[in-house]
Structure formats: C-alpha cells, structure tokens
Design brief:
By secondary structure, this protein is mainly alpha-helical. It has 17 helices and five strands. The protein folds into three domains: 1-36, no CATH class; 39-428, Orthogonal Bundle (Ammonium transporter fold), CATH 1.10.3430.10; 454-511, no CATH class. The relative contact order is 0.12.
C-alpha cells in the first residue's frame, strides 16, 4: 500500500511527493498530507500560537494598570479588539501581503487573498510546517504588534478611528516590514539581516508607531501639572500582565524556531534569562535613586529584557542573554526620560521599552550571534556576528533597524493625519476626545462601562484668595497638614457619595 495514501510512514521526506508544486500541497482527498510533517512540530507550533495569543490580554492588563482608573477598561478593550481586527485583516489579505510565495523584495502578492490555497504546502518560513500552520502563528504576531502600538491612545484617544487605524496600519506598515524581514524574498532577509522573532517588525515598528500616535494626539489635558502627577492605578494588573507576557514570550521566541528542536530550547533559555536579568537590573537602577524595590520597576525591566532578547534569542548563547538583559534594563530605564526631550506625551513609555529595546536587541545580535546556535535546528546556516568575525553584520542590523523605525513612524503620521483630516468633515473620524470627554474618562464616554464599580472623579486644585467666592453646589475641603490656603473641589456628572482623602490630592469616586 502506498504510504502517502495510507499514512503508515509519518515522516516521509517532502521531496518524495511529486505533487508539491500544487499550491495547496496536494489533493487531501487522494493523499495524506500529514505524512510530510512531524506531529511534534505541529503540536509545538499550535501551543506556541496559543501562548502568543495569551500575550495580548497581558498587554491589556499591563497598560490598564499603568493608566488612571477612569480609562483602564478602554486599554483592555483596545488590546482584545486588536486581535479581532488584525485577525480578519490577516485572513483578508495580510498573510498574502507578508508571506506570499510570489512576494517581491518589499511586499507580497495577492495569490493567497482570503487564505486562498493556504493549506498543506510547505511554508515560506520553514519547510517543517505547512502554510496553514505558519499563517495562524504569524497572525498572532501581527495582532500583538498592533496591541502594543495602540496603547498610545491612553486617556485621550477615540475608539472608532483607532479601530480603522488598526486595519490600515497592519496593511501598510506591518505587512511590508514582516515581508522584507522574514520572507525569503525580502530585501533584509536576502541582505543577511538577523531578526529571529521580531526586533524590527514587532518592537521597533510598534514603538515608533506609538511615538507617532502620541505626537498626533497631542498631550493629555493637565500634562506637566499636578493633575497628571499620579502613580499607576493598579499595580496588581501590571503584575498579572507581566506574568501573561512572560509566559507567552516562550511561544513568541521559542516558537519562532518553527519546529520542536534544540534551537527552540536555546531560545526559551535565553528568553527566560534575559527577562530575569532585565527585571533585576531595572530594580537596581530605580533603587539607586529612590531606595525602594519597585514592583512596577521590576515588571518594566522584565518586559525590557524580553523585548531586547527577541531578535537574538535564536542566534545567541545563554551567557549572551545576560548581557541582553542588563543592556535592555539600563537602556530602556533611561529611555523613559526621552519623552521629555522629545516633548511627547508617551503616557505608557511604549517607545522607550519597545522602540529602544528592539533597537538595542538588534545591535547586540550583530555582536553575539553565532553560527553554531543558529544551526541547532539542523538546517539554518548564517555567517554569524562579530563573534564569528563577521564585522559587516552591524551594518545590516543598523540598516534594518533604522529603515523599519523610520517607515513605521512616518507611515503612522500619514495614516493618522489622513484620518484626522477626514475628521474635520466627519466627526466620527476625529482622533482625539474633547476636553470634556477626556475629563469624564474614555471608559464612560466611549464604552459606557467601567473596570470597577466606581470611577475616578475629575479634580481641580486652586489657591483661593481672600475674596474668592466658592460657587454654590461645589464641595470644598481643607487639606490637613498643608495649610489653610489650599482647597480642592471635585465634581462628576453622576455625582454621588464620595470619600475624602486627607493626605492625597484626590477624591476617589462614587458608586456607578
């Protein structure tokens, strides 16, 4: 009996199948297409896909915890909505634009439009897995990239234009960068650039997009004043988000080996090590200044380490991952100050952690990539980085990083500029909420639901003169321990019972 038909041989070499020239890999009614792929590889890739999906709510929880509570739910909502919008875009034409077998140097063709003919043929990513498996795995990468970037709308961006932006940005920005980085036809791939799991397509692209989005939206009301001098509203959310991301990153990096092999194991080891060292490093940098062991600092350092190791996780040895973690933790920590020099309200420091972290990771990959680590999968051959005396690799990495970052930043500005221009005539496309909507909170105005059973009250602080007249209907409370000259007035459209806080410049919320 023919083993291709019977399925008796589970690991037939792919080249023994004469019908592999068929776009779908062959007729599944006549042939058992499973025999050309290792079930262990397929199982590992399905698991990795689920792990990357888990990262997306992790991003939402992380961002939600960093924001003020009156806009906490909107950031969670945008993260999961990114999954839905981008998954449809990926089905519609995204996968074809990024990973078409007929792709050019910059973007793919539409021969896989609507996932047409995406089935059992070997993928462009690896002959070890079929097109269909590679498609769903890479779709999660596209979704989390958008989820990372849209955190820039925190506390002042409107929902509808952001949803439209998700679809357009994935099509115009992410798909071409993914194509030229990971598609064998892409110019970075052919040049010899090394990016194992997304230093440029995921992190630099999302970080620069977030920076552009922050510029286009403008600063939040009260930026630079006491009104925005606040701590993250829910550190528990930040920890939960970090745990989701940390666990999911194993599928993100180790899964990028695209099969179950030693290279995937090494990527997992490097990923965890860089995360641990990044968290410790950030904590130490913060402790030097404040003498506090910050939970938020540790979580931020973990993310910085994970971002930094992403492009090199499948190319470097475990000892190098320690250097990635230290450099990522230090560089991203200090990069959080860049927004003041750039005069940009990057509320969640997305550019500092992902843009800068991805860039540092790309550069370090040029130094520490080695040929023997890449060949742990049994078939990948690279010239390596500086450890292999391949000095020109630094030029390849710089070209990849700056091109991807500039393309993402400028492209995002053009997309958002076009949407905002349309918004002058069609208010639904207006990017930014009004001052009144921002004061009420995006959760209330855009969603009508809250992360908690109460919302934060807007507050006004003023120094009254002797002749000040307190408007009727406004509550005034003297602040204990701060003198008789300062008073605080609070209000909300649904004003009910409120709780006085004697030691903080706030009045927290009411029953919704």
């Amino acid at each position: 009996m023919d083993p291709v038909t019977s399925g008796l041989d589970p690991t037939l070499p792919l080249e023994t199948f004469g019908n592999t020239t068929v776009a779908t890999g062959g007729d599944s009614r006549l042939y058992n297409l499973n025999v050309f792929y290792n079930p262990g590889d397929i199982a590992w890739m399905i698991t990795s896909t689920a792990l990357v999906l888990l990262m997306i709510p992790g991003v939402g929880f992380f961002y939600s915890g960093l924001a003020r509570r009156k806009s906490a739910l909107s950031l969670l909502w945008l993260s999961v909505m990114a999954t839905a919008v981008v998954s449809f875009q990926w089905f519609f034409w995204g996968y074809s634009l990024a990973f078409s077998h007929k792709a050019g140097k910059y973007i793919g063709a539409l021969d896989n439009f609507g996932l047409m003919n995406v089935l059992g043929a070997p993928s462009v990513g690896s002959p070890r897995i079929p097109d269909l498996m590679f498609c769903v795995y890479q779709g999660m990468f596209a979704a989390i990239t958008v989820a990372l970037a849209v955190g820039a709308v925190a506390e002042r961006g409107r929902m509808l234009p952001c949803i439209i932006y998700m679809f357009i940005w994935t099509t115009i920005i992410y798909d071409p960068i993914a194509c030229w980085t990971w598609n064998p036809s892409g110019w970075v791939f052919q040049m010899g650039g090394l990016d194992f799991a997304g230093g440029t397509p995921v992190h630099i692209a999302s970080g620069c997009a977030a920076l552009a989005y922050s510029y286009m939206l403008g600063k939040r009301s009260g930026h630079g004043t006491q009104e925005l001098n606040y701590r993250p509203h829910n550190v528990t959310h930040i920890v939960i988000g970090t745990v989701f991301l940390w666990v999911g990153w194993f599928g993100f990096n180790a899964g990028s080996a695209l099969s179950a092999n030693l290279r995937a194991v090494m990527a997992a080891v490097c990923t965890n090590l860089a995360a641990c060292v990044g968290g410790i490093t950030w904590c130490l940098v913060d402790y030097r200044l404040e003498r506090k062991w910050s939970t938020v600092g540790f979580c931020s350092g973990v993310i910085a380490g994970l971002v930094c190791i992403t492009p090199g996780s499948g190319y470097v040895a475990a000892w190098a991952a320690v250097i990635f973690g230290v450099c990522g933790g230090v560089a991203c920590n200090y990069a959080t100050k860049l927004k003041y020099f750039l005069r940009c309200d990057d509320a969640l420091d997305i550019f500092a952690v992902h843009g800068v972290g991805g860039f540092i990771g790309n550069i370090l990959t040029a130094f520490f990539a080695t040929d023997y680590i890449a060949h742990l999968d049994g078939y990948t051959v690279i010239e390596g980085g500086w450890l292999n005396h391949h000095w020109v690799q630094i030029g390849y990495q710089l070209a990849d990083s700056f091109t991807g970052g500039a393309y993402s930043f400028l492209g995002t500005c053009l997309i958002l500029g076009a949407l905002d221009f349309i918004g002058k005539f069609v208010p639904a496309f207006r990017l930014r909420a009004t001052e009144e909507e921002e004061a009420a909170g995006i959760d209330d105005v855009e969603i009508g639901e809250f992360a908690y059973d109460y919302v934060e009250l807007t507050r006004e602080v003023k120094i009254p003169d002797d002749d000040d007249i307190i408007d009727e209907g406004m509550s005034t409370h003297s602040l204990e321990g701060h003198g008789a000259g300062m008073a605080m007035t609070s209000h909300h459209e649904k004003n009910q019972d409120s709780i006085d806080s004697a030691n903080q410049l706030a009045e927290w919320a009411h029953r919704a």
